[in-house]
């Protein structure tokens, strides 16, 4: 009796009987799609890249070796797990295969991964409070920190689904080193990333996703950066300078006003008559909430600052905008300040922020208490003023010692 020849399975049936793993992009976020027997599931890999960087056939990301290794490793793990299901005569279940590869079977599904926790912390504590507690620029800086920590997790641990419970104290220092090595960050900026991760762990503890903070004893040192500010001789040179262009004189006066009051650009640009308070003795001061953090600044107006305000009382540009001073956009201010620096031959690279540091250094060098200067600048901690805003000059040291010697001579004479 002739044998009945069985029909060969079609190419479509062959494809349906094997596991297909395909990468694809949603904007710049990289996803994997698992397909088998007409069913499919998709999930995020935690990686990101531009469309031109992704080679779908080679499972590679151009210019990112660690991400390529992770992507190819995931493909091999999925194929290996699928084969294991077949060998053990289990019906391949795509969700179970995904969970086995991503090590989620033993994990509590209500507890987010580290990257998910970072995203949740950022969205709830920063992004949701944009314009309320934080300026847009501050939120953007935090977003960049989250992205760099995310890259550390994927590169260092080779796992976008790294669990919160797997974090160790050594990850803090590893993250600092990673930021220095990969992004060229200075020490203090790299430390910010580890401190943000520490805050994220506190957030996870508050949500009962973790029992303890592995970074509780992480106390990184901070390098004291050299504070760049103008000396009194530089201020005198600026005061005496007269320019032909109106905009140059505007920028010079606004910059000097900030040197005498310590106001940041965002605050001086909003300065109006409602911020000026006249006391019973006739003296005037500024009371204004800082745009950056909402802290109240109390700034006595010294004669030089008052003269600048008086100069612009009837200025049409100020009256039209209901402002006390004519302030251009920050980029324009900084551009013109660089030209003023060249014209006046000043050794310090001028920016609007240099004015705040000049203010702190100027008043502290002239014996104004640190606590008073911190209040003027709107700092809650005097350590912030001392570490980041005060230049330690030898002129101030010499003057203070001379004053001390004079007082000692007076006492001895008595």
At the fourth level of CATH, the homologous superfamily of the largest domain is: Intergrase catalytic core
Spatial order of strands in the largest sheet? 1-2-3
The CATH architecture assignment of the largest domain turns out to be Orthogonal Bundle
How much strand?
5-15%
How many alpha or pi helices?
17
Q: What is the CATH topology assignment of the largest domain? A: hpI Integrase, Chain A
* Number of domain units: 3
Kindly report the average pLDDT value: 84
Notes on the protein architecture:
The protein has helices at residues 11-16, 65-87, 94-101, 114-125, 136-157, 170-183, 187-206, 232-240, 246-261, 265-268, 303-311, 316-321, 330-344, 352-365, 370-377, 382-388, 394-413, and strands at 20-26, 29-36, 39-48, 54-55, 60-61, 276-278, 284-289, 296-300. Helix content is 51%, strand content 10%. The chain has 414 residues and is mainly alpha-helical. The model has no long low-confidence stretch (mean pLDDT 84). Strands 1-2-3 form a three-stranded antiparallel beta sheet. Strands 6-7-8 form a three-stranded antiparallel beta sheet. A two-stranded antiparallel ribbon has the order 4-5. A hairpin with a 5-residue loop joins strand 6 and strand 7.
List the keywords.
3 domains, 17 helices, 3-stranded antiparallel β-sheet, mainly alpha, 414 residues, hpI Integrase, Chain A, elongated
Question: Can you summarize this structure?
Answer:
By secondary structure, the chain is mainly alpha-helical.
């Amino acid at each position: 009796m002739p044998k009945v020849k069985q029909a060969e399975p079609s190419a479509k049936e062959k494809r349906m009987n094997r596991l297909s793993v395909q990468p694809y992009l949603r904007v710049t976020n990289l996803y994997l799609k698992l397909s088998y027997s007409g069913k499919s599931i998709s999930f995020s890999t935690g990686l990101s890249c531009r469309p031109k960087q992704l080679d779908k056939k080679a499972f590679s990301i151009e210019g990112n070796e660690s991400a390529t290794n992770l992507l190819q490793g995931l493909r091999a793990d999925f194929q290996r797990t699928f084969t294991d299901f077949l060998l053990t005569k289990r019906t391949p279940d795509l969700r179970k295969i995904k969970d086995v590869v991503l090590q989620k079977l033993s994990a509590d599904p209500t507890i987010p991964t580290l990257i998910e926790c970072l995203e949740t912390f950022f969205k709830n504590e920063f992004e949701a409070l944009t314009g309320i507690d934080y300026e847009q620029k501050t939120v953007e800086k935090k977003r960049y920190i989250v992205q760099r920590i995310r890259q550390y997790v994927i590169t260092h641990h080779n796992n976008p689904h790294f669990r919160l419970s797997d974090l160790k104290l050594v990850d803090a220092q590893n993250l600092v080193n990673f930021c220095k090595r990969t992004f060229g960050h200075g020490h203090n900026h790299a430390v910010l990333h580890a401190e943000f991760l520490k805050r994220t762990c506190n957030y996870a503890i508050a949500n009962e996703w973790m029992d303890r903070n592995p970074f509780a004893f992480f106390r990184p040192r901070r390098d004291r950066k050299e504070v760049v500010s103008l000396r009194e001789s530089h201020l005198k040179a600026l005061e005496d300078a007269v320019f032909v262009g109106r905009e140059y004189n505007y920028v010079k006066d606004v910059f000097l006003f900030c040197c005498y009051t310590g106001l940041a650009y965002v605050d001086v640009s909003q300065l109006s008559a409602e911020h000026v308070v006249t006391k019973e003795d006739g003296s005037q001061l500024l009371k204004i909430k800082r745009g950056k953090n909402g802290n109240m600044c109390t700034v006595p107006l010294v004669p030089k600052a008052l003269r600048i305000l008086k100069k612009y009382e009837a200025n049409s540009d100020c009256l039209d905008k209901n402002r006390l001073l004519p302030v251009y956009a920050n980029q324009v201010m900084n551009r013109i300040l660089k030209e003023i620096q060249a014209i006046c031959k000043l050794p310090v690279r001028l920016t609007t922020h240099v004015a705040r540091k000049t203010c702190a250094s100027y008043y502290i060098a002239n014996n104004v208490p640190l606590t008073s200067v911190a209040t003027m600048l709107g700092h809650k901690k005097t350590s912030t003023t001392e570490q980041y805003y005060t230049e330690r000059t030898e002129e101030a040291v010499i003057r203070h010692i001379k004053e001390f010697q004079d007082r000692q001579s007076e006492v001895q004479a008595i």
